[in-house]
Structures are given as structure tokens and as C-alpha cells.
């Protein structure tokens, strides 16, 4: 079990409040045009995500996530990578002071990681075998939001374990322990996915699996999150890079949009997310060299065979060729 999961079991980090004891106004805090009072915690523990004051919320996605927190709905956020699916959930949780745990369902996460395993422990100077709960039973018994990232990449044996708890108040049976775990009333479950459970029909996301439709049917809300409009992305990037001119930032975003369209069309395999644009602008503030910082922030991460096309994107936006060397002069 990896260190991140182990951290979740530190008894000294247990939530300081066992249930929401206050509310936040959805219109005032999230800009949602609804008269919603969302349950929240007045105090935060170390599992509450860090607050990003400048975060810009997508209204539909935010409304879906808030419904998950307020009404215990199982919410899946679907979209291309780099759209900020997981961050969206975390930033809602941060404003609610709701403890939040993320786990990436990659090939290294097994059924044992989720359920638990027998482990040898030392008590009173003697070794004994003791069952150590996995992430899922632990989270079920606490007022936390559990987020499964890359949900459509999960192994089949893992997915069938998760299916048991997708029902509201769904119980988890630990056969080895002869225990039935009832979820905490304030346990919440979210997921992010690149597809909607149909597998890699586009050829963009190798390794994703088709999800059992009986399981997909148990997700109460599925919302799509696309790339941000240019004006919104400009506001976000400007917040992180106030000293960069709007003209330069707009061109950076235009170039990012070209990579996204190229990615969707299958022309390139790497895409510039809003985070990449922010990094590019920050690196440019360090090096004061736009093409060099572009190479260091994005181009060097790309497949060599695709760099020529990406260089064409650069030339199209900035009206000049991208120098071939990373060690060039201004």
C-alpha cells in the first residue's frame, strides 16, 4: 500500500468534527444562481484541500458537485484530461472544509489496497496478525469525500468492490472479517473519468476500460467538464501571472487551444492544460524568453515526432518560427 494511502489511516489525523455543523451559501461562495445552503464544517483538518482563492468554477459542474455534498449523490465528472476535473471537486471541498481523499485507480491499486489485508504487528513485545483496513472501509466510516481519479482505468476486480458501495447508504461486507460496514451519514463518493464508461472509443485514452452498465447506472449524476472559454481561462492565468500582458497571455491560450484541438483530432498525444499555460507564463517571467520557456514548459514533454506540428502551432500564433535549440538568445 502506498504512502498516500497509509497517511489516510493515521488516527491522529481524524476529522475534528464528526458532522457538518454550518452551511455556506451557494450563490455567495460559488456564484451558483440557486438558493442553496450547502452543509459544511466550521473547522478543517489536514485532509481538507488547500484553498485556491482565484479558482474559477464552471457553473454546471459546480452545481453537480454541490448536489453530491448536500444530497449524498454519487457524482462522476467526465472530460478530457487537463480540464481540472479533480481540482474542481477539491476546491468545492476546500470551501466546505470537507475532508477529501483522492486515489488514482491505476494498475497498481488492487482489491487488497481498497479492502485491507492481514499484517503482522507488535503488541506487548509479541508478534500477532491483525487485519488492517484498506482505504474503502476506512473512508466509509468517516465524514470524508472519497474521489476515485481515472475511474475508467480501474482493474475489474477493483471495480466490483466499488460497485458494492455505489448505492446510497450502500453497505460493504468484509467476508474475511464477518463484518458489515454501514457508511457514515456524511461519507461522499465522487469519481473522475476521461470516458463515460464505454471504453476508449476515440483512441485517445489507451488503458481505459468499458464499465459495467449496471455500475454506471448507480452513478446518480454524470457531468461533462470541457476546456474553459478563452475569457475565463485568461482570468485564471492572469490571476497567477499579473505582470504578463493580456496580449501575450491571449496568444499563449490560443496556442493551448490549438494543441487541444490537435489532441481531440488525434494529431498529437500531449495537450496543454490551463495549468501548463500558467507554468509557461511563470517560466517566462523567470527566463524572459517566450520560446525558450515554451520549450521548457511543454514542448520537451512531447513526442519528438509531434514537435514539428506543435512548432507550426507556435508559428501560426506568434508569427515567427520556434528556434530549434533550447539554448538560444533572446
From TrEMBL:
Residues 18-48 form the Cobaltochelatase subunit CobS N-terminal domain. Pfam families: AAA_5, CobS_N. Signal peptide: none annotated. GO terms for molecular function: ATP binding; ATP hydrolysis activity. Residues 75-199 form the ATPase dynein-related AAA domain. This is AAA domain-containing protein. It comes from Parapontixanthobacter aurantiacus.
